[in-house]
Amino acid sequence: MKQRDRFPIPLWILMLIGIISISFSSIFVRWSAAPVAVIAMNRLALTTLLMLPLLGKHRKEIVSIRWRDWALMFVSGIMLGLHFLFWMGSLRFTSVANSTAILTLEPIFVLVGAWLFLKQPVRPLALSGMITAMLGAAWIGLSDAGLGGDSAWLGDGLSCIGAFTVAVHIILGKSLRTRLSAFVYSFFVFLFAALVLGLYNAAGRQALFAYSWKEWGIFLLLAVIPTLFGHYLFNWLLKYLRPESVSMSVLGEPLGAALLAYMLLGEAVTWLQAAAAAVLLFGVWLFLLGSREPRTASASQEQTLKEPRQASEPA
User: Where are the domains of the chain?
Assistant: First the structure.
């Protein structure tokens, strides 16, 4: 690492701040009494408002965006909106620990999509991790049988769908990010997702803005803490850390969310749930190890890898 790339604060502290920040997402959703689609809409709308003052610096890039890329960004925004809709909905039915653990299947769905549509090869270690993670997810569902019954299974299923939709969003983003900056891509995807959720809420005759100051405080906390101090911080850390190191942060969210749920919501985790989540997270860890780019990659590949990803991953 060059001297000019060094940062005065230890990077592991910043990584820890990011993990804690995204872990709060499920807690804030549980605290809110608003419909999940309204929570998601206002979280994204407030995030775009916070980003708006910096948009003028990207005027030249915006006017040069092709129509095809606008269309792909719109689809990516729809997928992000669906992710929030399904994942936040899962928290109404299953535990925070189970919902966030199942959400870590997202990178596996990304690899499956890359294998099916981009013909990207799957390494044996990644395949072993994928199978292990799927077994862990199935075990989580079985562990819910004696706890929440059908409603808990519904929550697990919604979280799984949320992981799938955000995977589609990320696959689209990986293509678009070769032509667009992280800020421009993220701003318009957030905006499109908020607009689509707004139409969904209007069609369902949900109140869009008539909420208490407490609810608006929760919406703002969601926009600032898990989004800006969470996912955007991880994007920034990609300038200083290898991408696979940052991607490992996905394993920290279920642990952080479970601990916060225990302290702030009084939500306990059974030994069976903990064992199932451990199997799932171990599988995702193996998968991430097996998906790492070799260190002998060319300089051009290294530069591509160091480009920041979009700031809109799960939670």
Answer: 14-306
